[in-house]
């Protein structure tokens, strides 16, 4: 039976555990993909939708007010970063999830600063923020878990060899 390496896409036989193309541990990568892939897919969808909405909202706000404000730049800039970084989610889930979370918290923090308690008014806006926080939180957690899983295996290998040799 032939499988495609989950990391580089090279066709490998399932008898070899390490991919001849990129050296990835195919069994480990499969285990990681089980929890990382759904988080990455949700994050990518969120980045595209939230990014698109922020750009549109920022543009409409500018057109309505006729002056460029810090808030519009923050929203539009974050939207552009979200849309652009959706291209790199698969390759670099942790940096993308961290940057997106940072920008999300900055926007929310700015709204709290500007609007005070009004920013916490229960409604669609708050619901969307909670929903966003869950998706971003999940993505960060899954990316950290993937990194920890790879590190654990990487650290375990030399020790196992050392035990055999001694
Ligand atoms: Zn590979």
Structure description:
By secondary structure, the protein is mainly alpha-helical. The protein has one domain (about 35-155). Helices cover about 75% and strands about 5% of the residues. The protein contains 4 helices and 2 strands. Strand 1 (about 1-5) and strand 2 (about 10-15) form a beta hairpin. Helix 2 runs antiparallel to helix 3. The chain is elongated, with a radius of gyration of 21 Å. It starts with a strand and ends with a helix. The mean pLDDT is about 90. The structure holds zinc ion. Zinc ion (ZN) binds near residues 5, 8, 10, 19 and 21.
Which features does this protein show?
166 residues, mainly alpha, 2 strands
What small molecules are bound in this structure? zinc ion
What's the mean pLDDT score?
89
- Which regions have little confidence, pLDDT < 50, spanning 5+ residues? none
Q: Which term fits the overall shape?
A: elongated
Radius of gyration computed on alpha carbons: 21 Å
Terminal Cα span: 37 Å
Q: Give the percentage of residues in beta strands.
A: under 5%
H/E element sequence: EEHHHH
Strand order of the largest sheet: 1-2
Q: Mind describing the biggest β-sheet?
A: 2 strands, antiparallel
